[in-house]
Amino acid sequence: MNRRRVWMAAAGAALLPRFAIGQPSYGSTARIGWLTAQRPASLVPYLQAFRAALAEAGFAEGSNLTIDFRYGDDDRSKVPALADELVRQRVDLIVVQGEAVLEIRKSALPVPVVYAYSGDPVSAGLAESLARPNANMTGLTYMAVELNGKRLELLRELAPGARRVALLANDYPGEPLERASSLAAAARLGLDVRDVRAGTSAELQAAFAKMTADKVQAISLAADSFAVQNRAELVDFAMRWRIPLVTSWPVFADSGALCSYGPRLTDSYRRLAYYVGRVLKGARPADLPIEQPTTIETIVNLKTAEAIGLKVPQSVLVRADRVIG
Question: Count H helices, E strands: the chain?
Fold first, then answer.
């Protein structure tokens, strides 16, 4: 009887995914999937940081790691089929970047998921709380609600004469929390806030028309994948009307926005690699709390400041992590 129990336990263990036994049982190569609705070019610097951190954790491509990439090319509807492809490739884990995670949250994929997401995981239904992720999914959020008020404080410091400020945002899980934080900060700073929404090309053109009619003097942009895809238009609008544009992600400052203040995304992707390594080595996603950003950076574009007629205060320059121009 005892021998039968031992045999059944061994047989059951053999059916478990290799990452669930406590230590990785693969002798040569771990296989992970990379899934995003975005295009490859938008993620190049972050993938570099991700790969470097994975190597430091003991997982190096060409040695004991293979990464299968799937890109939706800015079409979220492709994500479920791409996830199914990765499952058929028998990956050990799927890394999901950005809003693609919203397309698979109810898919009950048979492999663990580690994600990096810009919205609020709780509002999105990805977790009961940051400390209690869904059983098979965990990861990072770039959202820290308190940063919205600090961004408006920075805007006031950069452009003290600006009073009419547009809060430009798409609708996404957690956006109401960020808007409430921004409104509270705006009231404290004496700003006249205009709430402007855009999540489609038509809505973006309407947003431009509304901001022009309202004669806004500055824009605080809530960054998401839609804003990234349309950043050239957003920056062109701000430059045409000589309006300071501040937001959270470095790609906007690099593209001509006046300033970005938010998570250092290269650090976030290094932490994403840490989570992937933990799961590959046997940790359960449910035991890894969702992490918020811990490193915040300020990037100032002096070329843009000069073009729109602003002089950046020395108090901002000495705090900046990077100055462009």
Answer: 13, 14
